[in-house]
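[Q] Does anyone have a clean structure-token version of this?
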Amino acid sequence: MKIEQFEMERMQSTWENVVEMDLSESGVRPVTLRELAEMGLDIEGILNTPLGYSQSNGTIPLREALAEQYPGATPDHIEVTNGTSEANYLLALALVRAGDEVAFEVPNYMQYWGLPRSLGAKMNCFHLRLDADWEPDWEEFERGVTERTRLVYVSNPNNPSGSVLSERAMQRIVERVEKTGSYLVADEVYLGAEIQGERTSSFWGMGERVIVTSGLSKAYGIPGVRIGWIVGPREVVAECWAQHDYVTIAPNRISDAIARVAVRADNREKLYARTRGILQGNLPRVREWVESFEGFLSFREPRAGALCLIRYHAATPSVELCERIRVNQSVLIVPGKQLGVEAFLRIWIGGKPEFLKEGLRRIGVELRQEVRSQESEVRMAPRDSDF
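[A] Here you go.
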């Protein structure tokens, strides 16, 4: 298959280790091995671990621990992968064929924009509406999810808006999937990263054709071990395992051991609380920064996740604006164009407070220049009396 370039990931991998400040990240600052040791990770045992292969679909103890999070699931409903991205990738390989149709929620992490297209599928987008608190445009949704639809992809909590679907919206999506015979793939990697309010409800258990993907990268704050998972019908998980044998074969053995400690119920709650504390501390700073632009910037505050999707009110394309910020300020952020929406910026809020403060200051230098340019254009515009 021929796959198109993943613009956002290529942009990040090209510049994230070159710029002085990377605010294109998407999780909270990572947990250390020392912190995990305080939660019960046997560091000495890991030092004595032979570096051989692990079980290719995840060890039984890890799959048992994960199954406890999803009522009704057994280890046979779970496939452990190398990150949530691989979980999503395997599902595309297992389920999508040339000529299929895939319904894709926008804005989103654009992995599932490129993957099905490379397999010959037709993409039907439905948008989340900012003016409706990021709920789906239901007319677009109904048009996009039909009997021809093989798969519907959503992220909930949403990347990049940080919005959370209402219970009624979730039910409506599942009802449509059941009616059309489609599969729903719900990427729930930000579940547990709620800034305020209750824990996000999982789509798991809402229907027989529901598949959930998740991992340690975001809410847990452990991206470096590259552990993700699929929870789905046994036959789908079995097909994903077959695909896994052709791709990376198995997760890392040490990563599997770390994951078994991280997903333990008591540790999971500690890690979620750590994430919430980081985000609650940083969000007010972003709010104050946005307000300082007196209407040039606006955003609907995220309910979950380490991201802020901020709208700017200017005609400059987001890729051009972000490139100017990178070149002039050595700060990397994600343009809305690479998330399926224009005139937005995605800014990371999961770092240390002083890092965020300086990053926002630098971004602000370029944005205020944009404001001045707009004001200058308005002053220079001809009046009727000039003719």
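[Q] Thanks! Anything notable?
[A] Residues 383-387 have pLDDT under 50 and may be disordered.
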